[in-house]
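#struct-pred

JT: dropping the chains for the assembly here, can someone run the whole complex?
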Amino acid sequence: MKKAIILISLTILGVYLIDIFTGIGFGTAHFASGVKDAYLIGSKETLKVSNVVTSIVVNFRGFDTLGEVTVLFLASMALGGILYKKRHDVGERSVLFPSTRIVMSGAKLLFPSIVLLGAYVFIHGHLSPGGGFQGGTIIATGFLLMLITYRNYSVSHQRLSYIESSAGIIFIGIGLAGYFINGSFLSNVLPAGKLNDLFSGGVIGIIYVAVGFKVAAELTGIIYTVLHEKD
Amino acid sequence: MEKYLEILNYTIYGAAILLLLIGLYGALTKKSLIKIVLGLSIMDSGVHLLMIAIGYLKNGTAPIFSPGHENEMSKMVDPVPQALVLTAIVIGFGVTAVALALVIRLYKHHNTLRIDEIKNLKW
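RK: done, full complex below.
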């Protein structure tokens, strides 16, 4: 009975959604005269950023990204609070099976290059696909590899929180600099430079490096907290 | 033949809506808490796919002015849904992480993952 009600309401929802989206149409230029061109022209002419998604996320909607970073910070803090333990209760990590020598050497070999790839992705966020969130996630996967390979590999929570808070302070500081120099929060205070140059786009590069550090520290903290969850 | 191609145009919408409905069904009917969180996560991917598909342009390129292609603005896909989905993915990750942490706490407290064995949590 319950399942029948759910199935009927889901069918109605599905038919309704299909009706809406066939009305919109797929792959047609229905947004050609909309907000898309304003973003593309603004990104190319005034900001000189070649990756338009980055310029939207960090510059045109920079305040939104500040909120997003805050939500991620809140999530990691809530996780720490929910899975709270006294400091001396933090025991051994739960390991299903010990890793072999091949895995250990391979992880040691791969770890620096994973971190380097992450740094590359967030430094070049305004030139190529990628950015702070993606690069930070790549760095966190490197730490995940090390944490599940070595039983006694540990990450200092204090250092992580220092990195995280200083990256957040840099983000807000750049925003406040924009407020005091140009009169609006997070406006571009540095020269825009040339299109497709590494030092282009003004503050976008700096903000995305800060976001990359912040996301990497937060995700590593989340992974560390969950891996130590054992009774 | 023409008609089949007409339907093929909408397969990506169909797949996205199907993912959304599967996730919602799982979240509504499953008894295990982990499966409910998984259902929410699948629903998230459906919504992301749907939003990305709205901005697609036929034979379009990525919205990046790479060297030598600076003047192909009319061929680029819409960058706005992509930026929105970038935000949505991060928020979805945060929601999943907190939900799984709550599931761990509930399991410790009640020693069960089945939602109908926990008092007052069954509908």
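JT: nice. Chain B has a mean pLDDT of 87. Helices of chain B lie at 2-8, 11-29, 33-54, 79-110.
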